[in-house]
């Protein structure tokens, strides 16, 4: 699949061409640099919850996730106990998956612990490759890379969970570490990270 040109004359990948929520996310947020701990913890958490589901499902539930997880404040989530996990498992407005909920709590604790060695943002961005893909079609976009595999392994060693190499590749795309916008997309190169 190549770019779909919308009524506004702008080319987008098919996943972002029709649903207004996905189109707005693509046009304004996806692939833009996120370099702060709070923003990266939220994106890391949402990518983990997305595993096995559609991104549209997660975006629609994002306000509920923010409410349920105290705005993805790592300090607050790190303090969650079994009662909080039980509360989240009964919250129908989010994805009620025990492993993903427990991973988010563990990841908050690991995020707080990383502050002693530079923090989550420096840690994740240290895996930025020297080159980014240059896809013509969606089929040209990889689903993982040597860097996403290395990031996955390093995060697991640091106590993070539910951070496989495919999920980490999606995170790297979402936060601007990679630019996998299709060549010809109006968003290609707009992050300021890649030309």
From TrEMBL:
Signal peptide range: none
Residue positions binding Zn(2+): 181
Annotated protein name in UniProt: DNA-3-methyladenine glycosylase 1
InterPro entries tied to this protein: Adenine_glyco (IPR005019), DNA-3mA_glycosylase (IPR052891), DNA_glycosylase (IPR011257)
Organism: Nostocoides jenkinsii Ben 74
PANTHER family in the cross-refs: DNA-3-METHYLADENINE GLYCOSYLASE 1 (PTHR30037), DNA-3-METHYLADENINE GLYCOSYLASE I (PTHR30037:SF4)
EC annotation from Swiss-Prot or TrEMBL: 3.2.2.20
Pfam families the UniProt entry points to: Adenine_glyco
GO annotation terms (biological process): base-excision repair
Gene Ontology molecular-function annotations: DNA-3-methyladenine glycosylase activity; metal ion binding
Keywords assigned: Glycosidase, Hydrolase, Metal-binding, Zinc
UniProt xrefs under SUPFAM superfamilies: DNA-glycosylase
């Amino acid at each position: 699949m190549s770019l779909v040109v919308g009524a506004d004359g702008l080319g987008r990948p098919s996943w972002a061409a029709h649903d207004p929520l996905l189109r707005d996310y693509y046009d304004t947020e996806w692939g833009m640099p996120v370099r702060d701990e709070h923003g990266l913890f939220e994106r890391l958490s949402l990518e983990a919850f997305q595993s096995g589901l559609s991104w549209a499902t997660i975006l629609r539930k994002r306000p509920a996730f923010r409410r349920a997880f105290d705005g993805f404040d790592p300090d607050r989530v790190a303090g969650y106990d079994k009662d909080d996990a039980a509360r989240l498992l009964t919250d129908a407005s989010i994805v009620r998956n025990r492993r993903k909920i427990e991973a988010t709590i563990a990841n908050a604790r690991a995020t707080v612990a990383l502050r002693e060695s530079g923090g989550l943002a420096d840690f994740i961005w240290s895996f930025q490759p020297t080159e980014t893909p240059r896809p013509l079609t969606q089929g040209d976009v990889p689903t993982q890379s040597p860097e996403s595999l290395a990031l996955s392994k390093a995060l697991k060693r640091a106590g993070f969970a539910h951070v496989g190499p495919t999920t980490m590749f999606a995170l790297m795309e979402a936060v601007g570490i990679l630019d996998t916008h299709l060549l010809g997309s109006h968003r290609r190169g707009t992050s300021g990270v890649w030309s």
